[in-house]
Structures are given as C-alpha cells and as structure tokens.
Amino acid sequence: MKNKKALKILRVILFALGLLFVVYSGILLSMNNFNLGNVLPGLLGIPLLLYGIFAPHLNKWFSHGPGRVVKWIFIIGYLFLICVFTVFGIRMGVAANTVPPENADAVIVLGAALKGTQPSDTLARRLDTAIGYAQQNPGSVIVVSGGQGPQEDIPEAHAMRDYLISHGIGENRILVEDQSRSTHQNFVNSKKILDERFGEGSYTTVFVTNDYHILRGLINAQAAGMTDVHGLAYRSLIYTAPPSYMRESLALLATYAFGADVT
C-alpha cells in the first residue's frame, strides 16, 4: 500500500515537472531564437510527462527484460545530467563573478545572433557592457569578433562596429574580426589582430560575453595562446538563465572531452 502511494506521488511530481519544462520551452521559443538551450528543458520534460501519463503501463514494462534496461538508462542519464549541470553551474558562477582589471589594452566583444542587420538583445547587452568598460578606460581598443551566420544578412562584427559607433565609441578604437564561427575562432583570430598591434603576449585583454559563457571563454582564450586575459560578464536575464546554463554545461562537457577547438 505504501509503495503504491509513493509511486502515485512520484507520478504526480514527475508529471508536474515534465509539464513545467515543456511549457517553459514553449515560452522560451516564442520569445527567442531556436537553439539547444531553449529546446533542452522540453526535451528533458517530455519523458517525465509521458511517464506521468502512462505510469501504470510503463511500470509493468520497466519491471523486466528490455524495459528494465531502458528504465536504468533513463535514471542514470538524468542523474548524470543533474551532476553535470550542478558542477559546471557552480564553476560558471565562480568564473562570472571575477572582476577584470582596469586599463586593459584590449576589449574583445564576442559575437552573438543578429536580427537582420541589428544586434539581438543578447548581443546589444554585451556591447553595452563593453561600452561601459571602454568609457571608464579610454585607452582600450575594442575588437568586435564574429563572422556571418547562415541566417544573418551581414557579419556580426559589422553590426557590432556600427552599434558601438552609434553609441559614441570612436571608429579609430574599433578593430574588426569578421571571420569567426565559434568561440575558439573568436580568440584565435582576435589574437592575430592584437599581436599585430601590440606584439605577441605584450598586452592585457578583457573579453565581454554572457555570465554563463565566461568559463568557456577563458578556456578557449588560453587554448588560443592568450595569457593575460580576463572575463567581463553581462548578467543574463533571470528567465533565460536556467536553459542557458544547461546548454553551456553541455558545451563545456564537449570542450573537456574533445578540446577547445570544437566549441
């Protein structure tokens, strides 16, 4: 009797979580671009939702043969993801809260999606963060780094340059890197530009990106050969933070498993 009651409670909890995750993904997709972070809660929620609906039938199947194997695959998989999200979430939080030095020689702004020829909300906030730093440190040059994505009308770096100029940053302070298609390429290509300007290894760099992206940015910057490099975080909106941290956790897992050049 107690087991049946416990299973019923578990069924209700998993159904509620699954429904919450699926609805959350729907809201995110209605307000933002299609990406793994916005889809991931829904992908995790669908199995929970289905279990909540079909638990009596599934429990019979899970009790023997192939069903037992599938059950343990799901249990281990969800536990693994919980561990990944927790460990990397803590590490990302620590990295995002470090304070960069003042008077850096260069500020690299990492690209993000465009809306037509204009920066998306995420990219605009990165640029606003860079503008704030540049105004307080007038000796810093700014590298706008980002190539042209498959659904973009112009390279991200060109839209970023225009945004900075329209917000009062002198064009002579802006260096354009418009070939990158990944975080690793952002740093490799930006380093080439800065090496030509300052000499290899003789400059301090601050890069600007979202809070959850700082840790992977540092890993990629160091893999590209940058030494004196620091992150400056733009704080993600609360409602977008959970899926962003989840997606970034998987990207970090891929980075550690396969190397920085894959991300």
TrEMBL record:
Pfam families named in the record: DUF218 (PF02698)
Regions crossing the membrane: 12-31, 37-57, 69-90
InterPro entries for the chain: Cell_Envelope_Assoc, DUF218, Rossmann-like_a/b/a_fold
Record-annotated DUF218 domain positions: 105-230
Keywords of the record: Membrane, Transmembrane, Transmembrane helix
GO cellular component: plasma membrane
UniProt-listed GO biological process terms: Gram-negative-bacterium-type cell wall biogenesis; peptidoglycan metabolic process
PANTHER family cross-referenced by the UniProt entry: ENVELOPE BIOGENESIS FACTOR ELYC, INNER MEMBRANE PROTEIN, PROBABLE PERMEASE
The protein's name: Integral membrane protein
